[in-house]
Amino acid sequence: MKTSFDTAFEHTIGKEGNYANNPNDLGGETMYGITKALASRYGYVGDMRKLPLETAKYIYRHEFWDKMRLDDVAVLNELVAAEIFDTGVNMGNGIAIGFLQQALNAFNQRGSLYPDIKEDQSIGPSTISALRQFFAKRGAKGGQVLLKTLNSLQAARYIYLSQTRQANEEFVYGWIDNRVGMAAQ
Question: 100-136: b or e for each residue (b if 16 or more CB lie within 10 Å)?
Answer without folding.
Answer: bbebbbebbeeeeebeebeeebbbeebbbebbeebbe
